[in-house]
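Re: your question about C-type lectin domain-containing protein

S., sorry for the slow reply, the queue was backed up all week. Below is exactly what I fed in.
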Amino acid sequence: MASRRTLIASSTLCLLLIIESSAASYPKPPKHPIKITAKSASQLLNLILLVENRLKTTACPQNYNLYDKGIGGRFCYRFVADFCRNQSAAQKYCQNQGGNLISLNESNFEFFRLRAAEERDFSDQQKGTHGPNLQTCRHFWTSASDYGRETRFRFISGLEIDPNSAVWVEPVVFNTGKNCVVMDGNNQYLLTDFNCALQMASPLCQIFL
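Result:
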């Protein structure tokens, strides 16, 4: 937020300098209001658009990326590939960052499935072949769970996942020991119902703008 306020303040100062420099060209205060020409209006509009575009790209906290694909919402996200915890600890981590574990939908699922593979590959390269999480932490937590409504998994956003959707590794079956959902690193990051207590997945955090 501080960077956004700094940017807005800088842009405002820039506009004031433009106005001041225009006024300085007059030897004394003009008798009539300064006319806004088509050229000056166009320049001002371009400046506003430039500031707006800059704000869009700096809206996310440090280490977060902006998701703004026109479908599936507009938010910041972060794969925390080196943090292997259970679902509760992963959720607390995201909450401390100002968000929650991610809520996916079928519009943006393919994008995040591919990004998950990229993030895990990068993490493995950073750790080397003997990294501590290479075998045990292959997955990413989502916010979905089916507590109190077995096999009806719902994200924090309120969206429920069709148990027969193609986003699952296989159709969901009744299993009281698997109440949470991960993006399964052993199955191309499709969704899998998972034991919430296992410390075998990393957070995928989401912050809505």
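The helical segments are 2-24, 38-57, 87-96, 109-127. Confidence is low (pLDDT under 50) at residues 1-9, 11-26, 130-134.

Happy to talk it through on Thursday.
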